[in-house]
Write a structure and sequence with these properties.
By secondary structure, the protein is of the alpha/beta class. Helices cover 46% and strands 15% of the residues. Helix 4 packs across helix 5. The structure holds zinc ion.
Amino acid sequence: MSAPLRLYNTATRTVSEFAPLQPGKVGIYLCGATVQAAPHIGHIRSGVNFDILRRWLLASGFDVTFIRNVTDIDDKILQKSVLEQMPWWALALKYERAFTKAYADLNVLPPTYEPRATGHITQMIELMQKLIDNGSAYAPGNGDVYLEVRKLSSYLTLSNQKLDDLQSAEESENSFKRDPRDFALWKSAKPGEPSWPTPWGAGRPGWHIECSAMAHTYLGENFDIHGGGLDLIFPHHENEIAQSQAAGYGFANIWMHNAWVTTAGEKMSKSLGNSLQVQELLKSVRGIELRWYLGSAHYRSMLEFSFEALEESAVNFRRIEGFLKRATEILGYLPDPLIAPEFASAMNEDLAVPQALAVVSENVRVGNIALTSGDQAVIATQASEIRGALGVLGCDPFDPAFAASTGVTSDVLDGLIVLALEQRTAARARKDFASSDAIRDQLAALGVIIEDTAAGTRWSIN
Ligand SMILES: [Zn+2]
């Protein structure tokens, strides 16, 4: 038994033991993409980091409900829809699909539920009604709805700011606000923009309200973990907390934030944006290699991107993969994944992936020595522990998700069928026709058709 899981909580600025609200269960809400452009690795790093958290919780025996939303209505989406000359909803769907493909290419597990903002207008209206009824929010009569932030003593505690120091981020000239720092839950309809009817007039949601409404819908009033990128702490997450707590919900117990992908020490620049799109990078490395690279840094550390570092990381990964392939060939079977205690200790300490990778490197070093000496027991143990670790990191080359890109699964399948056919030939040679027929029938039951030809036995899948 390794030590229990400890996680860093942005809200308390400490690492402490994870205590789920319900034993054995974890509810996670991750702010997903605003679907207004093709995903670059800065966007997808968050998905990978929180997928590692989810996989580690699953490997630790938790039942995980994972929500990642899609922001499909937003100022940027409306602006892009004009630029790309397509309806806002068509643009949003186009990029939502691009994100879905990128997540799949990088083996990010699909969320338990993936709610879209526009599918939850009713829940947003219910929440706003509640906030207006209890005096936390107000509708000044022009179709907007605002949250009155001064009434909330907990406001800005996540980002550790003082209300007096805060400038209004937008619409400072807006005379409908009681205080310039109040933020919009709902924005009144503007000509040519989409809108939905509400008791306070037609309009569209402000960005923040959707996450409070959807987290409440799928995870309830209190849930375990809320995640997102570092840049979301303020204003987005502060405003989510304000809305939810003003409604009387406890909201998230733990706040986790992943750091950025940086270039030249800065948050990824727009100029490099296109070359760092996921689909562009997948022209030079495989999905499993890009994932390995993005997941290799600690989630709270900046990941300084360079093409050289990506290539070096891919080469390192291929060494690990190469060991697993050779081990499987020598053993004649694929060892089952197993979590090494040292790996578990590292992951339990706020998902210390760099330390966990040091354990994997040691597995590979010991395993390679065993390959040379032919020590099958050691080869099997190391291969099992590597597969266990790689599974948690979402980078097991034997995972069917990567089969198409690695070819490993088809190699294994081919090896297994050839093995069965050799057994059949041996059975026939000793005139054990009952066994040879049984092998043929069992393969046939799996849809494997075998054909005896002059050149030998061929197989195909029906
Ligand atoms: Zn959010």
